[in-house]
Automatic annotation (TrEMBL):
Name of the encoding gene: oppC
Classification via PANTHER family: ABC TRANSPORTER PERMEASE PROTEIN, OLIGOPEPTIDE TRANSPORT SYSTEM PERMEASE PROTEIN APPC
Protein family membership: Belongs to the binding-protein-dependent transport system permease family.
Keywords: Cell membrane, Membrane, Transmembrane, Transmembrane helix, Transport
InterPro entries with a match to the protein in the record: BP-dependent_transpt_permease, MetI-like, MetI-like_sf, OppC_N
Residue ranges annotated for the ABC transmembrane type-1 domain, each copy included: 105-305
Gene Ontology CC annotations of this record: plasma membrane
Name of the protein this chain belongs to: Oligopeptide transport system permease protein OppC
One Pfam family hit: OppC_N
GO BP term (any one): transmembrane transport
Coarse class of the protein's main subcellular location: membrane
Membrane topology: Multi-pass membrane protein
Transmembrane region(s): 34-56, 107-133, 145-164, 176-197, 232-257, 284-308
């Protein structure tokens, strides 16, 4: 009588997970204390911003929950009138500074991530076209990029923000302010992506796999999207990481100048602008904690981007 062999589905191979864990990229990350700490800080801040409604002790932008008697409570102390305790103190309106930072980071991170995505989308698209098509297409795109590079990015963002806000109906300006801010920062930062992608495309388009794709009848759009794009993504990811920190700082700068996020949806830049009004009156914490949060966030993202640049550079392996 023949034996019946029952085969059980095999579990995922541990060797694959082990190879991933011991890969050059993960090994470089595990052996870089700066990268590990930076990643932990960024992850912690992003989770704090994402779950701000659940973590924040108070809703700082709900007038029904505010108590003016809590105003100017120093950090780590209980208010002498209400007895409420605030870890990072309160501002002039009695809003918990810790809660305002969590909600402010939501706006700053949302604007930064969205602006970088927009800049990356525009820059990668026009960079691929300039590098692969060449001719007048490349000339026009790169001359526009050169002209934009002659102006500081923050001035370009302010110009775009002012024009976009000017053509927005007055009744919709506050509701559209965040989207206008994303558009302004995104359009002021696409040049870096375009220049890097164009240079990488000029190198890739002369390689054998691109020539083979042409011989089998692939369209230029298909070659750029399916063949060249995957091979130029490494520098794009590095630039995107560093640009995220710059976009967050740009948003904070515009909001600090009063042309960014509206008062109803304050970001870290808005909180810093509010705090600087009380810097010389003794309420230092209203300015210090939002500014320290912005500094820690931007510095951690920059350090993470520096490590990512080195980790993805084949010459340093």
């Amino acid at each position: 009588m023949a034996e019946t062999r029952i085969e059980t589905p095999t579990a995922p191979s541990r060797s694959r997970l082990r190879r991933t864990w011991e890969s050059d990229f993960i090994w470089s990350f595990r052996h870089s204390p700066v990268a590990v700490v930076s990643f932990a800080v960024v992850l912690l801040m992003m989770l704090g911003a994402l779950f701000a409604p659940l973590i924040a002790p108070h809703d700082p932008f709900n007038p029904a929950t505010l108590n003016l008697m809590n105003g100017f409570t120093p950090p780590g102390q209980a208010n002498q009138f209400t007895g409420e305790f605030f870890v990072l103190g309160t501002d002039d309106q009695g809003r918990d500074v810790f809660s305002t930072i969590l909600f402010g980071m939501r706006i700053s991170l949302f604007v930064g991530l969205s602006a970088v995505f927009l800049a990356m989308l525009i820059g990668v698209t026009v960079g691929l076209m300039a590098g692969y098509l060449g001719g007048w297409t490349e000339t026009i795109i790169m001359r526009v990029a050169d002209v934009q590079l002659t102006f500081p990015a923050i001035l370009v963002a302010m110009l775009i923000f002012g024009i976009a806000k000017g053509i927005t109906p007055p009744e919709h300006r506050d509701a559209m302010a965040i989207w206008v801010l994303i558009l302004a920062i995104g359009l002021s930062d696409w040049v870096q992506f375009a220049r890097v992608v164009r240079g990488a495309t000029l190198v890739e388009k002369n390689k054998e796999y691109v020539q083979a794709a042409k011989l089998i009848g692939r369209t230029p759009f298909s070659i750029m999207l399916r063949h060249i794009l995957p091979n130029v993504l490494n520098p794009v990811l590095v630039i995107a990481t560093i640009s995220l920190a710059l976009a967050i700082i740009a948003e904070a700068t515009l909001s600090f100048l009063g042309v960014g996020a509206p008062p109803t949806k304050p970001s870290l830049g808005t909180l810093i602008r509010i705090g600087q009004e009380f810097m010389f009156s003794g309420e230092w914490w209203i300015l210090f904690f939002p500014a320290a949060t912005l500094l820690a966030l931007a510095l951690s993202i920059n350090l993470l981007g520096d490590w990512l640049r080195d980790a993805l550079n084949p010459r340093l392996r």
